[in-house]
Amino acid sequence: MTRVQVLDLLDRLKIDYRIAEHPPANTVEDIDAFHLPDADRIVKNLFLRDENKKHYFLLVMQKDKAANFKEIRSLLGSRPLSFASEEDLFRYLGLKKGAVTPLGILHDESRKVEVIFDQDLLLYQDIGIHPNENTATIWLALADLVRIIEMHGNSVRFLHL
User: Rounded CA gap, 131 and 73, in Å?
Assistant: First the structure.
């Protein structure tokens, strides 16, 4: 699903969003360098898998928060976690490294990826994410993003990370 298709979906679902165009941003540091408005609400997204490649997780958290894989593993009741491969990222989310976003879930036809949100994101009015391309950031309400993911059939959990 391209950026145009994502924006069309948001429009069809009558979901309010704001968009900012920018050069390609592969990392949180890249996005910070653009000094976007409301940059404090842009999140980071980590695509993880367990050691047996049976469970895949998309972790969405505050961009300045560190991810403790051992702690996350414990919270998930999972086997040891590591980053998923670029091949798995493309297979399940249709994304390339540097463009990871919760909206990539719309490519997950097998509904294999579970989306894990940091509970602290509930304090934000909206969050900033890529619209499946890393040359723009959109801000939308977290509740609307969760609704899109659940409508697609993927499971969502909120954890205190």
Answer: 28
